[in-house]
Amino acid sequence: MKWHKKLSVGNDKLDEDHQTLFKITDRYLKESSDRDREYTTTVLAQLTYYAKRHFKREEDYMEEIGFPGLDKHRDAHDQMNAQLVKLIDRNDACEANVQADVADFLANLWIKHIRVDDKRYKDFANSHK
């Protein structure tokens, strides 16, 4: 998974955050043979750190620009955090197939969130310049 400029949300700091997510995702997907519990624990810890910092920054930006979809977007962040916690718990419990579910979470949910949900506040910001 590679970052493309067309995925930019028009905010350099948020774009940097998104690029970091793409790097984590790309590395995890490419390391399929090394996706053991320990490696998955490391990736989930990175995501937890990333999510906390990034979601706060993104929500502050949406508030700053007066984005009317902030509450809905915040709910999406809360759902993503809840899913991340479930994946951590499953990984800690050594559940089967958790590595595949982490890969799916990264490749589908997070990336879709950037491509679809984050585009909404970009479009709003661009229309209110």
List keywords for this structure.
mainly alpha, Four Helix Bundle (Hemerythrin (Met), subunit A), 129 residues, 4 helices
Give the arrangement of secondary structure elements.
Elements: H1 12-30, H2 37-65, H3 70-92, H4 98-127
Helix pairs in contact: 1-2, 1-4, 2-3, 2-4, 3-4
CATH class bucket = Mainly Alpha
**Helix content, binned percent:** over 70%
Distance between the termini: 31 Å
Biggest pleated sheet: none
Number of strands: 0
Q: Examine the secondary-structure arrangement and name the CATH architecture.
A: Up-down Bundle
Instruction: Based on Cα principal axes, name the global outline.
Output: elongated
Number of domains: 1
* Structural class category: mainly alpha
| Averaged pLDDT | 90
- Low-confidence runs of at least 5 consecutive residues: none
**Topology-level CATH name:** Four Helix Bundle (Hemerythrin (Met), subunit A)
CATH superfamily: Hemerythrin-like
Topology pattern, helix = H, strand = E = HHHH
Count of helix runs: 4
Supply Rg.
15 Å
Work out the strand percent: under 5%
Explained architecture:
It is a single chain. With 129 residues, the protein is mainly α. It has a single domain, classed as Up-down Bundle (Four Helix Bundle (Hemerythrin (Met), subunit A)). Helices cover 78% and strands 0% of the residues. The protein contains four helices and no strands. The model has no long low-confidence stretch (mean pLDDT 90).
